[in-house]
């Protein structure tokens, strides 16, 4: 008979502490989401008066009220307005920022350096500093109370942060691919669409994700340009549940907040796979 000796590995308390710390940090970050979900099911008298996380009973009427819409506008109309604005902003940023980034990263023209530096400097410019001049321009064009002020600037590469992001990614791509395409007779536009653009997919998907989230959650800009309740988005509709002169419907407001959060989560889950695949397949440098 042979005896076997069982070797016990020593417990690495540092790794255990690290995992426990990560779990605690995860709980802290997820607590606001859990509080939002729980509050959306609380009765009206418990939303403000009670500090308990779990409601005494589930109030599903909050979601029924939220699904009825606000100001005689259905929830589907509000959702469609939000998707229209966010989708147009994503399309505009992806197209314009990629074209501007290709010009700065690959083309040679006069004053390229100063223009790129000026574009980077606009990142430090507060959005509220240019909001009044933009409003005056769109008001003179008769575009106030339409979706154009929220979508049209995205097609003009006004988001310097995303231009800088795509420029830095394009500068890391091998130039040999474009040189080979140029030898085959490709011009700048064909090289951009057939060679550079497919390799820039990770940066473009990152641009799309952040643009969608920022546009979907935007409240102040939409409040400035949209007056008609039929043109309201979900973000503006949330404000309609709070009235300083009467009783505020906090329960339906939190229920609508949960509904408004779902498209962001679904959008991120749908595109994160392409983001990871793009990062894995873009290792063609060198």
Automatic annotation (TrEMBL):
This protein's membrane topology, according to the annotation, is:
Multi-pass membrane protein
The protein's superkingdom reads Bacteria
In this protein, which residues make up the domain named ABC transmembrane type-1? 79-271
Instruction: Give the matching SUPFAM superfamilies.
Output: MetI-like (SSF161098)
Q: What is its main location?
A: membrane
Record's keyword terms, sorted: Cell membrane, Membrane, Transmembrane, Transmembrane helix, Transport
Q: Transmembrane segments in this chain: where?
A: 16-38, 83-104, 116-138, 150-170, 191-216, 249-271
Q: Which InterPro entries match?
A: MetI-like, MetI-like_sf
- Location(s), subcellular: Cell membrane
Q: Record's PANTHER family? A: ABC TRANSPORTER PERMEASE PROTEIN MG189-RELATED-RELATED, ABC TRANSPORTER PERMEASE PROTEIN YESQ-RELATED
**Which family does the UniProt entry place this protein in?**
Belongs to the binding-protein-dependent transport system permease family.
Tell me the protein's name. Answer: Carbohydrate ABC transporter permease
Which species is the source of this protein? Streptomyces massasporeus
Q: What is the lineage of its organism?
A: Bacteria, Bacillati, Actinomycetota, Actinomycetes, Kitasatosporales
């Amino acid at each position: 008979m042979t005896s076997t000796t069982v070797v016990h590995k020593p417990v690495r308390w540092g790794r255990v502490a690290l995992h426990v710390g990560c779990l605690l940090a995860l709980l802290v970050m997820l607590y606001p989401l859990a509080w939002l979900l729980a509050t959306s099911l609380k009765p009206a008298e418990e939303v403000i008066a009670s500090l308990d996380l779990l409601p005494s009973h589930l109030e599903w009427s909050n979601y029924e009220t939220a699904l009825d819409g606000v100001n005689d506008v259905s929830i589907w109309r509000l959702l469609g307005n939000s998707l229209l604005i966010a989708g147009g902003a994503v399309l505009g940023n992806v197209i314009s920022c990629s074209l501007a980034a290709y010009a700065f990263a690959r083309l040679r023209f006069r004053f390229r350096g100063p223009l790129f530096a000026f574009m980077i400097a606009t990142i430090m410019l507060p959005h509220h500093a240019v909001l009044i001049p933009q409003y005056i321009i769109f008001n003179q064009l008769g575009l106030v109370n339409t979706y154009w002020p929220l979508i049209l600037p995205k097609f003009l590469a006004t988001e310097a942060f995303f231009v800088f992001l795509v420029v830095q990614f394009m500068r890391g791509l091998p130039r040999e691919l474009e040189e080979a395409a140029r030898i085959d007779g490709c011009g700048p536009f064909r090289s951009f669409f057939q060679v550079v653009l497919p390799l820039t997919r990770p940066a473009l998907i990152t641009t799309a994700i952040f643009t969608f989230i920022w546009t979907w959650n935007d409240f102040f800009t939409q409040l400035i340009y949209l007056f008609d309740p039929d043109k309201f988005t979900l973000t503006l509709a949330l404000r309609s549940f709070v009235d300083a002169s009467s009783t505020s419907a906090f329960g339906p407001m939190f229920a609508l907040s949960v509904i408004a959060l779902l498209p962001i989560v679904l959008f991120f889950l749908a595109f994160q796979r392409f983001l990871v695949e793009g990062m894995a397949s873009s290792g063609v440098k060198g």
